[in-house]
Each structure stands twice: as structure tokens, then as C-alpha cells.
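Session log. Operator J.P. requested a structure for one protein chain; no other inputs attached. Running the standard single-chain path with C-alpha cell output.
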Amino acid sequence: MRIGQAARAAGTTTRALRYYEQEGLLQAPRTAAGYRDYSQDDITRVRNIRELQGVGFTVEDIRLFAELLDRPVPATFTVVDTEVCGTAMRVAQDRLTVLGERIERLTTLHGQLAGRLYGEPGHAVPALTVPVAPVTPSETEAVDKLP
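Structure written below.
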């Protein structure tokens, strides 16, 4: 199937498919006319990538155990006597540690800002009564880059 059909089937965009290919996570063969030709296995692979990203893995993380992407993603990660599974488990543990550290930093920042906004550190934060603009993707990226 062509890239547009594949993107719809995988629940993503054509841009994402090209990105995954550029990052070495996906390799679609080309037709004689040069079009990418995706299979159902490729769709499964993309869905697995998206699922893993949804639980916190980065593309760099996923690349370390890319050969597992053609299998169903298990509900609970376990080692099945392969070096790649062991790598995936180490990457998952490392990512969990990083996410925990990020949560701690954001919790600290939240407390500091709430203290400045309401005048008392540790003060219970009341519901906002002023309209707040939605967060843009670039603002989300900026928060992700906080120390």
C-alpha cells in the first residue's frame, strides 16, 4: 500500500512514516515507479513504535531494540532469553528512571510557581479562575527541555 494508505491504517501521518524510515525504524521497499510500498507487517511495526512512544520511550530508545518491533508489544515486559530482550529491559528501566527524575523536577517547579502565585510555599493550589490559553506543541517541547 502507498504511504497515505499506510499512514491512515497505522493511525499516523505520512510525515511520521518518513521520519521513522529516516531514523532506521522502518524500511519500505519501493515500487518500480519509486513509491514506497508498505505491507501489513509495516503497519504493525508503526503501531508498535507509536505504542512504545506513548509509554515514554524515545525514538533513540526504540532503535536499540528495533528488531523486536515486528512482534506484538507485550502488556508486561519480560526477558525471553535473548540479548535484545535484555537490552529492551535495560532501556525501559533507564527510561523509567529519567521519567521519574523529570516528574520530580516538574513537581518542584510547580511548587515554586504556586508559591509565587499564591504567596505561600506548599499552599494548596486553588482552581484557576482566569482563562488560560491552550498549551502549544512548542511550549510542550520547551517544558520537556527544562533541567
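Operator note: Helices lie at 3-10, 14-22, 40-54, 59-63, 83-118, 137-144.
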